[in-house]
Write a structure and sequence with these properties.
Helix content of chain A: 40-55%
Radius of gyration of chain A: 19 Å
Number of strands of chain A: 2
Number of helices of chain C: 17
GO cellular component, one term (chain B): ribosome
Shape of chain A: elongated
Pfam families (chain B): Ribosomal_S9
Number of strands of chain C: 12
Chains: A mainly alpha (about 120), B alpha+beta (about 325), C alpha/beta (about 500)
Number of domains of chain C: 3
Oligomer: heterotrimer
Keywords (chain B): Ribonucleoprotein, Ribosomal protein
Strand order of the largest sheet of chain C: 5-8-11-4-12
Protein name (chain B): Small ribosomal subunit protein uS9m
Order of helices and strands of chain A: EEHHHHHH
Largest sheet of chain A: 2 strands, antiparallel
Strand content of chain C: 5-15%
Largest sheet of chain C: 5 strands, parallel
Number of domains of chain A: 2
InterPro entries (chain B): Ribosomal_Su5_D2-typ_SF, Ribosomal_uS9, Ribosomal_uS9_bac/plastid, Ribosomal_uS9_CS, Ribsml_uS5_D2-typ_fold_subgr
């Protein structure tokens, strides 16, 4: 078991997938992180050297991920709502924000779009 | 017009054929003619009895040949005594056809004793198709009748070509398709200047051209070796089957160009092309190749999809409503 | 009064209640003119459901016809690494195959004997472990159908054998000759087996054998990498791969390396003691992958040394020739799958291990590539895998043209097309220059095609003698199979031989 940013990962997991388990890190970001610390893409968590683990943790702690990112997204939505923009209104109404049609296919917007959006 | 009615014609014929009846109806005739008629009636010989029954106005009475009276062209009416169609089958509806049929049947009867050859050795001629024949005659000949005619034609064609009379030949020429596509045999194919034989073949959507030269058994398909082109061994075998079944696999080099279709089609297109090229090198192999089935063209193609069908034949599932 | 309907019309219309129908006995049971199932169903005396319960159109008539879901068997997946082990497993013996009588082994005499051309030669049993260690056998080769591993002595093998004989023989032509050769050919044409034969000869002649059995594994980003040093951040070292190479080399060349002693100074390695065997030196790298690259460099320096460093003369013995084989050279001619810190792809030539082996191949260096003689055999496939690289293809074409006798000024000499996006590094790495060393030849190129008819015959006879073929082997039969195998491609011949076995 290896701790990366306070999270415990089993040794047989891929480092790339382990990084992607953080909110705010996807395919591209994790690949770039691996490249920055010269970790090959098929590397397992157990194969990481201590220094590499520390490097990754330091890099992750500098990034805006997990709760910071969630808070930021919610703040942005709230700001839109408070300034009275159309986008804010659409969020509040639970409708698509970016000009999609609303006659059909707005299930996702109904489910997700609201001021205190669930992330 | 009165002639158009058949009844009128019959009446006219009758009136011409029985001058005795006519005589009663025409009392004031010229002097010479009633005399003759009267004499005939006065001499009731058995022969004359008969002629009396079937007497034609144009027939001469035997024994009483006389110069006919001078025709007075002033009085001559431009109307024939009776109208005779050119063809005896004029009233059959398809007279030209029957004329032909009668003619060749007569020829057959005339020459039926001439020696014949088996149909396979008879000279090949491309006979007219029914549609062509109809167009040629301008008559709606029924198919069955034309087939009957063709049977006679086939029989006449089987007469030994050396003894074939000129008139029969001319009559048969009537039924040969214009241009006579089968008449001239294609020139036998030959090797080109570099000793290559070229054969073409098709199967499914594939077209193949094969150049065959004498060699050690190397095969190139589109510039690649056989195993690169056909991953399946079966395809390789079928592509070279013509050489294999004639035990010539190590005597020739094959260069094939093939395009279109999939692997099976390409392999079997090469088979056909290769067999044809091999026959140019060695025409004597034809029976072997025919038996091996490599020079038989497989004309099957994918059946087209039809509207309303899922595939060529498959229909969507029937739903009640 | 007579009803306007007859019974037949009424009964055929719809299932009628049974009471309306005449009793079964009253209906004449003569020939059934009505084929209506409904009618008969109603008439059948034993019918329990009667005529009222008629199933609807196109629906399962009873509930038992409904599909029941089969319980999915839940079994544990195989343990970690087992699938890979099965995939990579190499079986070298088939006890069901017949023992071939009079089979000769590959040895110093037989490998140059042209009378044996086209026959199968067995690999000596003690050598199999060495060959396994250098991963000379590939899982997709047909070793598992014969009693013991054998190879066909083909023309190219004989040439190689003569070269090995020339380098380490006792004749007057003995000398540190170096053969640099790229072996290319279509897939299954026997390139890897030729490399295997070279390795076997190397082991027989007591050479040191370095192999890269899968060149692709070095560039496919499946093992760890790191920048070489602070000063050279654009070069990358692959410690695990280097350690694996060292371990292969140590296990396979134990007999040779354990007799050689360290005779140079290695300031970078503190663990090296004077008088240590080279085996011990290499094991340092195996044990500590972090220092593997340094150890490899030290080992290479020891093996290519022609004289001892001052003060260490008593440890020096003449170094044996070196054989280097690389399988799949084409994979090294593009960018690798590794990424640098800026997320750009690392060129394969920036990986030090690759760079080391490619630099050996390049003729015309200041230092001779192998001062003690030896051979560099790099194989690459010309079909599909690896994907073709224009610059590399051009180099191969040029090598072929040079072999055909075209000079560089000749208009028929292959040139790069204008506007072709050619990789200058590949071109630069392999462009052949005039060699500065007398015993080093230019970069050679050998195209490995199909075997000849005689060799094919020998191969099929070996099949027959192993009991895998029932046919009598005639010239015609062999030439037919030769054609079907795409002109004697030996892998295809083997496949056909196997196929016949299944059919029989």
């Amino acid at each position: 078991m290896v701790f990366i940013l306070g999270v415990n990962f089993p040794e047989r997991n891929l480092v790339k997938k382990a990084l992607q388990s953080f909110f705010g890190i996807g395919n591209d970001t994790s690949a770039r992180l691996l490249a920055r610390y010269h970790i090959h893409p098929t590397c397992k968590v157990g194969e990481l050297a201590n220094k590499q683990v520390l490097d990754l943790t330091a890099a992750l702690s500098d990034m805006k991920i997990e709760n910071d990112l969630r808070r930021k997204v919610l703040d942005d939505i709230k700001r839109l709502r408070e300034t009275g923009t159309t986008r804010g209104r659409r969020h509040a109404l639970g409708l698509p924000v970016r000009g999609q049609r609303t006659r059909t296919q707005i299930k996702t917007a109904i489910k997700l779009n609201r001021v205190d959006r669930r992330l | 017009m009165a002639w158009s009615s058949s009844n009128c014609v019959v009446h006219a014929m009758q009136s011409i054929r029985s001058p005795t009846v006519l005589r009663a109806l025409l009392p004031q005739q010229s002097a010479a003619r009633p005399n003759i008629l009267r004499k005939v009636s006065l001499l009731p010989t058995p022969l004359q009895q008969r002629t009396n029954v079937r007497n034609y106005a144009t027939e001469l009475q035997p024994g009483e040949v006389q110069a006919a009276a001078e025709i007075d062209f002033e009085q001559f009416k431009a109307r024939p005594a009776r109208i005779v169609p050119v063809s005896p089958s004029y009233f059959s509806g398809i007279p030209k056809f029957y004329d032909h049929l009668l003619q060749i049947e007569r020829l057959l009867a005339q020459h039926t004793t001439l020696p014949t050859v088996p149909p396979s050795e008879a000279p090949r001629r491309a006979w007219m198709k029914i549609a062509q024949f109809r167009e040629h005659l301008g008559e709606e000949v029924p198919t069955k009748k034309y087939m009957g005619l063709l049977k006679v034609v086939y029989r006449l064609n089987c007469i030994d070509p050396k003894l074939l009379p000129a008139e029969v030949d001319a009559a048969l020429q009537e039924f040969v398709r214009p241009g006579n596509p089968l008449g001239e045999k294609p020139k036998p194919r030959e090797l080109d200047g570099m000793g290559r034989a070229r054969g073409k073949g098709k199967r499914k959507e594939s077209h193949a051209v094969v150049y065959l030269v004498e060699g050690e058994g190397e095969v190139l398909v589109n510039g690649k070796t056989l195993n690169e082109v056909f991953p399946r061994v079966h395809d390789r075998e079928s592509a070279t089957w013509a050489l294999r079944c004639s035990a010539r696999l190590d005597k020739y080099n094959v260069f094939a160009r093939v395009k279109g279709g999939g692997t099976t089609g390409q392999a079997e297109a090469i088979t056909l092309a290769l067999a044809r090229a091999l026959m140019i090198h060695e025409p004597g192999l034809k029976p072997i190749l025919r038996k091996a089935g490599v020079i038989t063209v497989d004309p099957r193609r994918v059946e087209r999809k039809k509207p309303g069908h899922m595939k060529a034949r498959k229909m969507p599932t029937w739903v009640k409503r | 009064m007579v009803s306007p309907f007859c019974w037949g019309c009424l009964t055929r219309l719809r299932p009628t209640p049974r009471t309306l129908l005449p009793s079964p006995s009253s209906v004449s049971r003569g020939p059934a003119f009505h084929t209506s199932a409904v009618f008969h169903a109603g008439l059948r005396p034993g019918s329990g459901r009667g005529a009222t319960a008629v199933s609807k159109f196109r629906q399962p008539s009873n509930a038992s016809m409904k599909k029941r879901k089969k319980p999915v068997e839940k079994s544990r997946p195989p343990p970690v690494g087992e699938r890979k082990a099965i995939r990579k497993r190499i079986v070298l013996s088939n006890p069901n195959a017949l023992e071939v009588e009079g089979l000769q082994e590959l040895s110093e005499e037989t490998m140059v004997d042209s009378r044996l051309h086209g026959t199968a030669l067995a690999l000596p049993v003690p050598m199999l472990d060495q060959l396994r260690a250098v991963q000379a056998f590939k899982p997709n080769q047909g070793w598992s159908i014969f009693r013991r591993p054998c190879t066909i002595l083909r023309q190219e093998t004989l040439q190689l054998g003569r070269f090995f004989d020339k380098v380490s023989g006792d004749g007057e032509h003995k000398g540190p000759f170096v053969k640099k050769k790229i072996i290319s050919g279509p897939s299954k044409s026997g390139k890897s087996v030729l490399l295997l034969q070279a390795m076997a000869m190397g082991f027989i002649k007591k050479w040191v054998v370095f192999t890269i059995p899968e060149a692709q594994e070095l560039v496919s980003a499946t093992s760890s990498y790191a920048p070489l040093s602070e000063e050279q951040p654009h070069l990358y070292v692959q410690n695990e791969a280097t350690a694996a190479l060292l371990s292969r080399t140590v296990v396979a060349n134990k007999a040779v390396l354990s007799k050689l002693r360290v005779s140079q100074d290695h300031p970078a390695l503190s663990a090296v003691t004077p008088g240590m065997t080279l085996e011990g030196l290499a094991n340092l790298g195996v044990q500590d992958p972090a220092s593997a690259w340094t150890v490899f460099q030290a080992l290479w320096g020891e093996l290519t040394a022609t004289a001892a460093a001052p003060g260490l003369e008593k440890n020096f013995t003449p170094r044996p020739p070196i054989l280097v084989t690389v399988d799949g050279l084409g994979h090294w001619m593009t960018e690798s799958k590794y990424r640098d810190a800026e997320f750009k792809l690392v060129h394969s030539h920036d990986l030090v291990l690759v760079r080391h082996f490619l630099r050996l191949l390049k003729p015309g260096g200041d230092q001779p590539a192998l001062p003690n003689g030896g051979a560099l055999l790099y194989a690459t496939s010309t079909t599909m895998n690896p994907p073709s690289v224009y610059a590399f293809d051009l180099i191969l074409k040029r090598a072929a043209a040079r072999a055909a006798g075209f000079k560089f000024n000749d208009p028929r000499f292959p040139r790069a097309e204008a506007y072709s996006n050619i990789d200058p590094r590949v071109l630069e790495a392999l462009t052949s220059q005039k060699s500065k060393h007398a015993q080093e030849k230019k970069l050679g190129h050998q195209v490995l095609g199909g075997v000849t008819h005689d060799e094919a015959r020998g191969f099929m006879e070996y099949f027959a003698r192993s009991g895998l073929l029932q046919e009598t082997i005639s010239d015609e039969w062999v030439s037919e199979k030769w054609t079907l195998a795409g002109g004697g491609v030996i892998g295809e011949l083997e496949r056909i031989g196997r196929r016949l076995r299944v059919a029989a």
